[in-house]
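Q: What does the assembly look like in three dimensions?
Context provided by user:
Components: two
Sequences:
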Amino acid sequence: MTLTPDYDSLTALHQRIHRLEHLLALASWDRASFMPPKGNEARAAALAELATLIHSWQTEPSLRARIERAQRESLSDEQRANLREIHRGWEQANALPVALIERRQIATSRCEHAWRMQRKANDWRGFLSNFLEVVAIAREEAQRLSDHLGVSPYEALMHRFEPGMRCATVDRLFGAVRSWLPPLLAKVLEHQAHKPRAVPSGPFPVAAQRRVCEQAMRLLGFDFEAGRLDVSAHPFCGGTPEDVRMTTRFREDEFLGSLMGTVHETGHGCYEQNLPRHSLGQPIALARSMAIHESQSLSFEMQLGGHPGFARLLSPWLCDAFGHQPAFEPDSLHRLITQVQPGLIRVEADEISYPAHIILRYEIERPLIEGSVEAQDIPALWDLKMDELLGLDTRGNYADGVLQDVHWPEGLFGYFPCYTLGAMYAAQWFATLRRQRPQLDVEIASGQLEPVLVWLRDNIWIQASRWTTEELVLRATGEALNPEYFRQHLATRYLEGPPAGSGE
Amino acid sequence: MTLTPDYDSLTALHQRIHRLEHLLALASWDRASFMPPKGNEARAAALAELATLIHSWQTEPSLRARIERAQRESLSDEQRANLREIHRGWEQANALPVALIERRQIATSRCEHAWRMQRKANDWRGFLSNFLEVVAIAREEAQRLSDHLGVSPYEALMHRFEPGMRCATVDRLFGAVRSWLPPLLAKVLEHQAHKPRAVPSGPFPVAAQRRVCEQAMRLLGFDFEAGRLDVSAHPFCGGTPEDVRMTTRFREDEFLGSLMGTVHETGHGCYEQNLPRHSLGQPIALARSMAIHESQSLSFEMQLGGHPGFARLLSPWLCDAFGHQPAFEPDSLHRLITQVQPGLIRVEADEISYPAHIILRYEIERPLIEGSVEAQDIPALWDLKMDELLGLDTRGNYADGVLQDVHWPEGLFGYFPCYTLGAMYAAQWFATLRRQRPQLDVEIASGQLEPVLVWLRDNIWIQASRWTTEELVLRATGEALNPEYFRQHLATRYLEGPPAGSGE
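A: Here is the predicted structure of the complete assembly.
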């Protein structure tokens, strides 16, 4: 006989949902990696059937009362944190009427499907004809979530990915970046113009590329007994904490994109693999948020991957895989990895230009949801902001402008800020690490990544959703998110040369 | 407003079950092919969760009345056939109490898990200690199914795989084979002793083997847009009709096992890929039975694969893949494929020895279920029958005797007959084909497999479960299953040399 019958009934339900979500995750991964084309229709129907079933469990009418009663039960702090997350998930699942979810599904499917061709055809007008309905639905969704959750409409959308984040905070953080980013970028470009540059010469056989990617994953602590690396058109990290399915893509004429992309996904993968085992299946054991998730992939790709010590580790592997080349010398390789070059495409952007792409999108999608900007206005705003932030002319080039991302056609508003919040968190993790461990850069330069991995594991990975994001950051670093660490990181790396003690 | 509300509610339910079974099939395939070891526990839990859910739908109390009312609705012949299959599935799902299913799950998991090591250790006594419980549960299961379905206990188990098949029929068919098989085998061994034999020389690179396997699959009509070939420890054909997942395994020192195994699985795969699309999701669109399924894999592997024309098709592919060798000459290759050599292991058996392995198992498992034989008696019976049927001494060798198959440790009684019934059906399909198309062997010899594939598609694949097995055979061949075609096939192939007109 338990003293917490309602809490226990809720954890039992989430255990069952976790098991079914395992199958959703597997089937989604397979759809992107191995599924033959004629399997798509049956797969979509199977995924929808199971998703509908899970949603019916999450919206079961008795849940409200069970959660309320559980809140009055005698729970441990950890159980109470789990109940907080259960309640948050319940609010998310119950805030929207099924009819609206179905309308969204239809509108975003149509818009996303047509977008694939419209992007190729630079067809903004065609896109707009479907996108207007997507925006209308997103606004209704935001308003309903806002009413339910007591935050602003855009915040309500953002909370699906970054719970607790306020627009005022994003404004402050991004406002700071906006002020120093354009001048920093100009200085870095000037600084790099004087450095010699060696270009790797291909082809780079795919089998050898895969071996190097797997070496990097092992170095970073990825457990191949509990996960895989496969190939998909768009790299991602999927699967479940018990069985992480990462993907990459290979090109014979270029290896760095695949390698650094794999390093990025490995950050996501290690986070998932190191979520706490004892509470797996409960919301408290889920990764904290998308920005925290991104802070892990960027800790690996940018903080470690862009470190001169990482180039020194990679150098012999690349020589083994592709033969000796001047571009594989540690210094050359590091310059290649940290090369800055503003461009039109977000996913190809370097570490300094990337925040500009995100700030631009935030400054468009927030007023779009709030109604002060209309979808028709986006291209003009895009042109203006690309010029301001990166000095690039995008007029008439919708394909490499507003049509480049899948997020908006899919109705994913409120997600973009996570990328740059993640970069800021990652800089703050490493600033804390260096404070606690002054020899860190020497260790990384000599291939000792263990201190970094142990810190991330103890402070982020095994904490999962035990704390709110604010608490997590405070406990890990002693202060709230502070964009100054990101600025310092960029200035140190890109203007002052390698960190002291890195051995160069 | 429909005139058949109950029938429609049943088809809607089966459509939903079909969608969820898609996910079960995918997750099972992945477990055998790609899943890393540490994913197993979560996978097992996810599969069990979904299987339990599906079972709860299949045993929902209102179903009995809905099926009864649907039987009184105004249905087309095809709908009525579907309802017959719905009713059969409902009977199967509802005949056993959940407690017995759970007991079986625990007992067979324990027995199968321990068997993996016990087989290697030749440990019959250790195996027996778990197996006694498996047999006790199977007997109870058989008795309950028997009471429910009104057939004998062993028949009730067999009907899960081969609906409608009676013991009297199996006795008659296998009795016939038992009478002519040992003398035929002796004659064939004598006949082959005088033929020259060239042995292929390896190694055979896996990538080249895979190419040859895929060539064979394409030749046999497998649609790679709707299926895949991957690798697993034990080859199988899984997935769904819309997305068939075949597996094989490769050895560098031998290629024929993998190639002919792939040809075998392609028979299963093409059957699944060609099930009728318009009723997919309904029981009427499922493959008819396991023996009919096996008749398709054996039509491909034995009837076509053992045809001299098939060796002629393979010959240039093998030379391309592995370089010219005397063993790849069409005559040598055909002799290699049709080489007869009695051995201890069923899955390695040639076309003539194979039925002996099956008859032995049938003659043991049937009285075991009926209670006239006890598990303790199996080794002695095994020794006796291996000597009678194949002239082999198996005393004390449990590993290559009773412990060789996974079926009994898993509680799969009543399945074995399907293999040899399938071989008989396959022989009867080809006898019919030759009667209808006297030029068939010339066509096969010249690489025209289209007439075979069209016949199988029209008579078997797209018929699915439209008819009972007896009706299906009668419609396809004009008579009931007749083992004489199988005897004639073996005698012609193995004693008289290649069929007339084959070009040799």
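Follow-up: The longest strand of chain A covers residues 243-248.
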